[in-house]
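Notes from the 1:1 (GR / supervisor)

We went over the backlog. Supervisor wanted to see one worked example end to end before approving the batch request, so GR pasted a single chain during the call. The sequence is below; no edits were made to it. Supervisor asked that the structure be written out right there so they could see what the output format looks like.
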Amino acid sequence: MRILDKYSLKQIAKCYIFILIMFVGFYLFIELSSNLTDLIRTKPPIGVIFSYYINMLPVITLTVSRYALLISMLYITGLLNKNNEILSMRASGVSIMRLAFPLLFFAFIVSCTVFFVQEKILTKAQKNIEEIQMKFIKKDFSKNANAENIAFISNKNIIFARNFSSELKTMYDVISFIENKNNIIVSKIFAKSAVYSDEQWIGNDVTIYDFDENGTIISAPKHRSEYGLSIKDTPNELLIKQKSFFKTSSIRDLSEQIARLKRLKAYNLLANLKIEFYQRIVTPFAHLFLILGILPLALEIRKRRGGFSSLSIGFICSLFYYSFESFSIVLAKEGYLLPIFGIALAPLFFVTIGITGLLLIR
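Structure output shown during the call:
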């Protein structure tokens, strides 16, 4: 059995690496083409361009990895079926579960690797990409950029705003949580708007609540028509932070933010953070869920044109998984589903279909 396992692992690993490199190359070419006008206009240094695309590599790799693995698995199982190798294995007494083991094991190893890259490399790469885009590639982006439901951290403050206009240098419906040196939230500031003027953010129509270490209000609310907010970031820096807040936050960072907001019972602000937190945990293992869900069908592919059928089936299954996942996340963000259910629905569906299908194969 070890020989069969090594054979299966070797075949799918070679195919996966080949398809992954091909996908990454295509993605880089498309990315370069889409940025070509900006690169010609802004003329950034060669070193900056090189750094940008080096940082893009882990982002692109993690984006296309699951689809590369799915297509490679479909192609290899189709090829094995075409050559009657799976039939021979079954005839020699190998169970369908034993046949599936090396494929699922490889998917699990890839998922764990992606999880590691996401937490240790991707967050830093995303931050570098955002900074390079704002400073060198898309310099004019910030002039008329608008953003909704932004969140970022600045100078021991956790800031949320309903809307931000870079043209007006204004945030609307601002909520700021201020931490002490022990990372305990001691104040909560509401501002109808905040305007950047004279290198400072000034809040308008402000209400301030002070808390003790247990999150209990210790004094009457303070009202101010204007109040200087402890936000050091300029509008341009704020755009970078709000765009990369979730991307550059690790699972540990998100968990800490969730715990802080829970202590203040700010449940209406928790939904997006929880969704991102669960998504960070589940997304790397989409490799395993996709493979398990499609494996019963993959073991039955016997068409001569294995490459074409693998590509088409892989595209359809990937589209279905992505659509299902996106739809359930939207429902969670709108409050129709709990965040954990919004993230777990697509994986649970594929796992259920996969296990049921494997058990039904004779």
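Supervisor's comment: Residues 96-137 form the longest helix (42 residues).
Batch request approved.
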